[in-house]
Amino acid sequence: MDIIKKGDWVQIHQIVLKPEERAAHLPEDTKKVPLELWVKGFALDDGKIGDEIEIKTVTGRKVKGKAIKLNPRYIHDFGDYVPELTKIDMQLKKILFGGDCGE
Amino acid sequence: MVNRDMSYDAVMSRKNEIMKRAIGIDYDIFESGGLGFDYERMMREAGYTLEEIQSIQSSTGVGNTPLLEMKNLTALARKFAPKGKGARIFIKDEAANPSGSFKARRAATAVYHAKKLGYKGVIAATSGNYGAAVASQAAMAGLKCIVVQECYDSNMVGQPEILEKQRVCEAYGAEVVQLSVGPELFYSFLCLLEETGYFNASLYTPFGIAGVETLGYELIMQFRERLGRDPDKVLITHAGGGNVTGTARGVKKAGAEETEIVGASVDLTGLHMASDRDFNRKSFTTGHTGFGIPFATWPDRADVPRNAARPLRYLDRYLTVKQGEVFYITEALSVLEGIERGPAGNTSLTAAFALAQEMDEDQIIVVQETEYTGAGKHPMPQISFAKQNGIEILFGDPDTEIPGQNIVFPDHPSKIKVRDFDLNKAKVSYIKNAINNYGKKEIGEYDFEFLIKDTNSDEKFVRTVLSELGVKVLS
User: Fold this and answer.
1) Domain boundaries B62-100+207-420, corresponding CATH code
2) Inter-chain contact B8–A21, Cβ cutoff 8 Å?
3) Residue A32's domain spans which residues?
4) For chain A, what is the largest distance between any 2 Cα atoms, rounded to a whole number of angstroms?
5) Nearby residues of A80 by Cβ (< 8 Å), 6 or more positions away
């Protein structure tokens, strides 16, 4: 699973600025953490997750960083069911159309 | 280039040089040497005419979006309005644009311009719909595209709405560079511009803003054709100021001088926009006061030397609404009007719903945009994400909402209301910022006139603020 072959689609991670290199006037919490960067591209060599590798992005840029994911999936979705939203829907229909909409 | 110093300070010190090459506009010719500059000349000479933009946009399927009457929302608003009150509510369905939002208008002109000048690619710094718009337009134009977005907190947890923008930009073939929270995104952005030599498809160029003028113009023409009259108020979600500025300029170009320009933002008071912790405690990534107020009170904070978006010139009124209210109205739009849009784009719809109740029944209020809905960009993922971040979800009085702590859905739609943000306060801040940023103790006639125009105020107002700041006006 962790093996990367040349040409695989990989997400890499970089530290752009260490906490001490960051801009002045940041909020305290942000000041304590580095500025990080993530980008995806095709691996230019074999390797494995966790290795420092070089990728070629879809625009043709070569970028080095730590390989963190192979074929990363999109993780966002429609979330958990939120009962409060259905309550709003039923209330709105009842106020406007009256009667039995909620039943 | 290989031997260049890429440290933060070195790159930031090359800012002007990098920008000049990446945008193809010599801003110096519009400068006066002081704090004022020739805004209208910049819009005229560095932008495009309305006719040119209409033709650029129609060649990529942008614009001519439907104008829809919200009959059920109007009926609902009238239930709570005094007798004879409750204006007709309309929306301009900008989600019908190729990339699903009005931002396609801005991107169409930016990408057209980049291609005309011979750039091989475009870069945009945005976590929002504009990224999708630039990626979509770049795909059509055959240009390369990089979108730089502030996406994750320090635990690599991303706002669902921004994760969706990453997906859609990649779907249009763009490279997406994602960053953790912080204003140094601008540093990475400059590095990329320098490395690639691509065009800076900034949101704030004259042609980007002029791209939105067609929206205001089209809207007025649609009302004249359909109802034989102009709308009384145009409601515009306000963040960086381009939506307000472009739309208002278009409305004025159509000659609708009586139409009131009203901005609306989601109230995120108390949340720090550069805070790693606060980042995922907000449920709106744009259209909020965290952008709306700083950009109104100091437009030239943008990624171009002179921002073409100058909202204080155009706003007649600026309203704030609460997160819980916008989610509520987003639900209403779905279940009463049968269209799923937003949620962020429904900020001005929420304000319109409340504002309509103050207006006469025969008046017209129009919300000038909608945006597409999808995974991540929907009340359900936004509210579940808020819950995961410890935000309390309540029903009650929206005025008790505390951004970052809770989201309060109105327990009844009659509780949705607008809150006026004092524009004079914003104008005072703007003048202070201008004076401080330029370190002026005295200003000349040109700068004085500029401050009047840039705040859409008058001589007396600006003179009073300046004298409180101890700044002399030389004549």
Assistant:
1) 3.40.50.1100
2) yes
3) 3-74
4) 67
5) B380, B384, B387
Handedness of CA A67, A68, A70, A76 (dihedral sign): negative
B178/A38 CB distance under 8 A: yes
Q: Do B335 and A93 touch (CB under 8 A)?
A: yes
Asked if the structure places residue A7 within a domain, the reply is: yes
Residue with tokens 């320090």: B154
pLDDT tens, per residue, chain B with 475 residues: 557 899 999 999 999 899 989 998 889 999 998 999 999 999 998 889 999 999 999 999 999 999 999 999 999 999 999 999 999 999 999 999 999 999 999 999 999 999 999 999 999 999 999 999 999 999 999 999 999 999 999 999 999 999 999 999 999 999 999 999 999 999 999 999 999 999 999 999 999 999 999 999 999 999 999 999 999 999 999 999 999 999 999 999 999 999 999 999 999 999 999 999 999 999 988 899 989 999 999 999 888 889 999 999 999 999 999 999 999 999 999 999 999 998 988 999 999 999 999 999 999 999 999 999 999 999 999 999 999 999 999 999 999 999 999 999 999 999 999 899 999 999 999 999 999 999 999 999 999 999 999 999 999 999 999 999 999 999 7
In whole angstroms, give the CA distance from residue A22 to residue A20: 6
Residue A31 lies in a domain: yes
For B376, the 3-state DSSP assignment is coil
Cα separation, B356 vs B76, in Å, equals: 11
Please tell me the total number of residues recorded for chain B in this structure: 475
- Report residue A66: phi and psi, to 5°: -85, 125
Do B8-56+102-203 and B62-100+207-420 share a fold?
Answer: yes
Whole-angstrom Cα distance, residue B441 to residue B18? 31
Question: B196 to chain A: which residues are within 8 Å by CB?
Answer: 59, 61
Q: Where are the domains of chain B?
A: 8-56+102-203, 62-100+207-420, 423-473
User: Which residue carries 């702590």 as its tokens?
Assistant: B405
Distance linking the first and last C-alpha atoms of chain B: 48
Residue A54: CATH number of its domain: 2.30.30
CATH architecture observed for domain B8-56+102-203: 3-Layer(aba) Sandwich (3.40)
Chain B CB contacts of A39 below 8 Å: 175-178
CB contacts of B275 in chain A (<8 Å) are 27, 29-30
- The number of distinct structural domains making up chain A is 1
CA distances from B326 to B24, B177, B298, B344, B398 (A): 39, 30, 26, 8, 10
Helix (H) or strand (E) segment spanning residue B461: helix B459-468
Place of tokens 């040349």: A6
The dihedral built from the CA positions of residue B39, B44, B47 and B49, taken in this order, carries a sign that is positive
Instruction: Identify whether A79 is part of a domain.
Output: no
Which B-chain residues 169-188 have CB contacts (< 8 A) with chain A?
A: 170, 173-184, 187-188
**Would the ipTM clear 0.85, i.e. be above it?**
yes
Rounded to 5°, the CA angle B408-B332-B355 comes to 75
Which amino acid is residue B1, in one-letter code? M
- B79 closest CB neighbour out of A59, A74, A95: A95
